[in-house]
Every structure is written in structure tokens, then in C-alpha cells.
Amino acid sequence: MKKSISIMLTALLFVSVLPGCQSSGTNPDVIKIGVFEPLTGDNAGGGELEVEGVKLANELFPEVLGKKVELVIVDNKSDKAEAATAAARLVEQDKVNAIIGSWGSSLSMAAGNIVKDAKVPAVGASCTNPQVTLNNDYYFRVCFIDPFQGTVMANYAISKLGAKTAAIIQEVSNDYSVGLASFFKDSFILNTGAEDSIVDTENYQTGDKDFSAILTNIKAKNPDVIFAPGNFTESALIIKQARQLGIETPFLGGDTWETPDFLSVGGADVNGAAFSTFFDKSMTTTDAAKTFLSEYEKKNPGKEPAAVTALGYDAYILILDAITRANSAEGPAIRDALAQTLNFQGVTGSTTLDANGDAVKDAVIKTVEDGVFTYLDYVAAQ
Fold first, then answer.
1. pLDDT (tens digit per residue) in 179-216
2. E-only strand ranges, the chain
3. Strands, E, within 238-371: which ranges?
4. Measured distance CA(196)–CA(159) in Å, rounded
5. What are residue 101's phi and psi, to 5 degrees?
6. Helix ranges (DSSP H) in 93-164
7. CB 39 within 8 A of CB 18
8. Structural domains of the chain sorted by starting position, each given as residue range(s) with its CATH number in brackets
9. Is the pTM of this model over 0.85?
10. Cα(298)–Cα(318) distance, rounded to whole angstroms?
């Protein structure tokens, strides 16, 4: 049963620590929450959106158990090795009580053993690959996972678009992309009843710029839909180059597309692209969502909050809720409280964590319409 967070709404008071700025020592009157996100590199656009949500939550809820909550923010530089280093720094040097992060499942997975061995609980905001929490009692998340997301998009392709065939373009250096593509494939084949319904699977590497060869191969197969989950920049370039080659096939993707970079890189060519994500303001069903949207609008008049910003906010307030329920800021106590989370009312709806630490959450499908992310559909969790 969720208990309310007993904290006062006061002025913003936090410390953001980036590379080169050290936070050392411990203060018994301060509870530290580490945030490791990609703030530079290929995934920076996503990491910045999550940090935006965490900072807003910290501004509104800067205390728990009568103690100040200090954010310690480090840049994992969109790199697996750097992600492990950033997580190690947070637990060994900064002595954080809990951790939020990271955008990018591969980056979260790189920190898995570090938080587990140190007994410092971590809550992922949007890392959807099942491997993030598998066999790790200290990793949790507030988002749905890819088996559900892949099924959502396969069902959308079949039931809404009438697709009988699909091609897949996957970013093979990205665990998120490969995993989500696999779940989409399995669900698409199952629901079409045809083993040959996936007519082509093409691979590329993170950072690639020229996709003409793989798109030419796909054009020859003439699929009904193209599923291309991957980083926002490469995905937008793929769609842009596909349109230049005369490919008008609908493109489908995953949650990583919901960034301003996807729109700016893709331009008018990404209009009509559809993807699964976590939240839309039309789903404002909780008091937390109303508060979040009101406060976000004050800071960003006329700007639509990204779903991962809402998830960053949720990850922070869930950790504070767990600390309150545990009446302790010790890692194992926070972990135990997180594991017992039931019907937590966050911005993105009700969150219950299962035995793996995964959230059972609904999904939203959005499209790009006239350069704006637009709500299309809602899919309830099974």
C-alpha cells in the first residue's frame, strides 16, 4: 500500500555533479541520490530529458525523513565502459543512497553488477530491455519492458495497418534495438501465423550515416511495414533516406524516438512515423500527473513534456516513497521497500513492481503529425 511522501515543498536545493566536479564525504543530514545518464555522446538527447524530470521532482520534493535530498549527477557519455565507471564513482566515491538511470538499456546493464555488489538500489526510468533487472535484486524500473512493447507494435501493425509482412532494421550494437526487434518479430510471426511474414532483417551500427544499401534491399522486398527501433538520430536518418529512395512504407519504432532530435533530424520525412511510448498528457489520471504537468508548464510554457521526462520524475518520487516506507536511507532497506511497491500512483499511472523489479505499465502509441508528437492509441498492460 502506497504511503504519502512526507516532505515539504520548498525552494530548489540540489547539487549537480558533472565530470571534474567532485562530491566527497558523507553528511548524516543529507540523503544522496545518484543520477547517471548520457549527457554527451549519441544518447545525450534522451539522457537530458530524463534528468529534466529528476530535477523537477527534486525541486518539488527536496526532503525526505526530514533530511535534504542531494542529486549527484554524472555523465556516462553514452558509453558502456563509461557507464560502469560512472556507477562505480557514485557508489564508491559519492556514497549515494540510491541511483536513477540510465537512458539506454546497454548503459543500465553496464552498471548492474556494480549496484548489486554495493547493495545500492537503482531505479531505471526508461531502460526497457529485460536483461537490466534479470537476476539483479538491486535494479528496478518504472517503465514497461520490451516483450510488451514489441507485442504492442506488432499488434498495431497487424490490426491497425493491416500489415501481413514486415521488414526489420536493427542497430546491432545496441542491446535495446536488437532485443526489441526480436520481440516484435516473434509477436508478428505468431499473430500473422506465417513464418515468412518477416521478409527481411537488416543491420547497422551506432553512428552509421549511410543506409542506402540496406534500404535498397528492403525496397526490393516491398514489406507492408518497416520496424526500425534504434537511437533517435540513426532512426530519423533511415526514414529520411527511405523517403528519398521513394519508399513510402509506414515506419514503426520504439520509445527512443520521442526526442526533439528525432524531429529535427528527420524533418517532414518522419511525419506519419508511429512508435510506442510511456505517457501522454491525455492520460492525466493521478494527482502526481496533475502536479507534474502544472509545474512543467510553468517552467516550459507551451512545451509538451517527453514521456521519459515523466519517468525520470517518477523514478525520483518512487525512491523517496520507498525511503519513507522503509523509514531508512540504507541501501538494503530501500531495496526491500522498492520490491514491495504496489499501486504506486506516479505521473505515468499506477506502478506495481513484479518479482523481477519490472513495472507492469500500460503503453501509448504516438505518431508524428506536422512535426509534432501526437497521441494515437492506448494499450493496457496484460
1. 999 999 999 999 999 999 999 999 999 999 999 999 99
2. 30-37, 63-64, 67-75, 98-100, 122-124, 139-141, 166-171, 198-204, 225-227, 251-253, 274-277, 344-346, 349-351, 363-369, 372-379
3. 251-253, 274-277, 344-346, 349-351, 363-369
4. 18
5. 145, 165
6. 105-110, 112-118, 146-159
7. yes
8. 30-144+281-351 (3.40.50.2300), 146-277+365-379 (3.40.50.2300)
9. yes
10. 23
